[in-house]
């Protein structure tokens, strides 16, 4: 029998189903009880489609906002962003609390002088802390690399090193097959420096600090602190009454702290919900408000 005349059971079954469907459509029946098939009700699908479109529209709007934030800040080195956030976090709270406390003395000149003195000293202190922290991190990395090199290039420890690589691979994926691990280690053995880098990065969890990392960290943290701390001082330049300056400073800082917390949540948690971002913004406002209120209260109490 030629192949053109053969019909497989699957093909035969499909043709029978199509034929039966054609008969049912001609009769206008559902094939079971003789009742005419009714078209689906548009009213029953309308709300579902409307809700679906609304949810899709909200998701698209949220993705557009997230995309805008990521487009602005996404190209910046994550380490630099981390340092900037550290500087801004302290700069937006400590000088604000100090100026609020000094404002209770009723002298706007004193607020400006005291605020600037703290701002300069705080900027230097934060920058120095960032420099020392980054330098310590670089020293620790170099020390770990030297220890690992001494162990790696000692032939007595060869089996230990290979066992370490195997353990690292099993931590990455416990489902790796033995042959896969064997081939991977065999390839790494051809490049000793690559194997050493693999152990340091994935075994020790260390990454080589960037060039001039300490100086960059100091500059970024210090600049972030200065910019954040200068904001609560701005209103005192434009008003004579210290009470009015404090009120404007509070309003400016509520706005600034909220959006700082909101954007910080977006950058650090990426796809977090709008509710989470709002909570982060309100938490920043609460922290700054408590610090400023406590400073104002204690200075006022000591003065009296």
Short description:
With 304 residues, the protein is mainly α. It has helices at residues 9-27, 42-73, 78-103, 108-152, 158-172, 178-189, 192-203, 213-230, 242-269, 274-303.
Describe the 3D structure:
This protein is mostly helical and 304 residues long. It has one domain. Helix content is 78%, strand content 0%. Helix 9 packs antiparallel against helix 10. It is elongated.
Q: Helices and strands, in N-to-C order?
A: HHHHHHHHHH
Structural class of the helix and strand makeup? mainly alpha
Tally the helices.
10
* Low-pLDDT segments, ≥5 res: 1-45
Compute the average pLDDT: 77
Q: Termini separation (Å)? A: 112 Å
Q: Which range does the strand content fall in?
A: under 5%
Sheet with the most strands? none
Helical fraction equals over 70%
Extended strand count: 0
The general outline is: elongated
What's the gyration radius in Å? 33 Å
Q: What's the SSE blueprint?
A:
Elements lengths: L8 H19 L14 H32 L4 H26 L4 H45 L5 H15 L5 H12 L2 H12 L9 H18 L11 H28 L4 H30 L1
GO molecular function, one term: manganese ion transmembrane transporter activity
Organism: Hanseniaspora osmophila
InterPro entries: Ccc1_fam
